[in-house]
């Protein structure tokens, strides 16, 4: 596809919605809506036996959800993915990690957004106090054994696609498969 023009439909500090006029490979002209968002980082805090998860209210779903700690940088900042991962882990759980290993990168919604997520394994964990943002004040954190975590996925208690995909990256990493 070839972009012929682009116009911003909506913007706020966290995202921009644009409408592009495009030319398809057959020569026909159409429109494509794209959500521009900054990249995020997700952290799998693993102590060798289980995981530290966070639970928070997800407004679009109208429900509380268990997930791995994750987030985007504050508007106007541009930390590296690993710096963002350390920040999110500390902010949401209070944990500090001696080691942060990149497991892989995921496309958030490739049909509608340019946003990507960088998934990390955090090990060598040290506890501390969370430093949550105002939107995260109702967040809880808890430790789950690997068996319980997997059962929660199978029962539909963990439905965040990024968390399930990040866990898949962890399983491949544990089998010795790694990203290039």
Structure description:
The protein is α+β, with helices and mostly antiparallel strands and 180 residues long. The chain has helices at residues 81-93, 146-154, 161-174, and strands at residues 2-12, 15-23, 29-37, 40-45, 50-58, 63-67, 70-71, 96-107, 116-126, 140-145. The strands form three sheets. Strands 7-4-9-8 form a four-stranded mixed β-sheet, sandwiched between helices. Strands 1-2-3 form a three-stranded antiparallel β-sheet, with no helix packed on it. A three-stranded antiparallel β-sheet has the order 6-5-10. The longest helix is centred in the C-terminal third of the chain and has 14 residues, at 161-174.
What strand line-up does the widest sheet have?
A: 7-4-9-8
Mean pLDDT metric: 94
Portion of residues in beta strands equals 35-45%
Distance between the termini: 28 Å
What structural class do you assign from the helix and strand content? Answer: alpha+beta
Measured as a percent range, the helix fraction is 10-25%
Instruction: Show unreliable segments.
Output: none
Major pleated sheet: 4 strands, mixed
**What is the element string, with H for helices and E for strands?**
EEEEEEEHEEEHH
The count of helical stretches stands at 3
**Multimerization state:** single chain
Indicate the radius of gyration in whole angstroms: 18 Å
- The strand count comes to 10
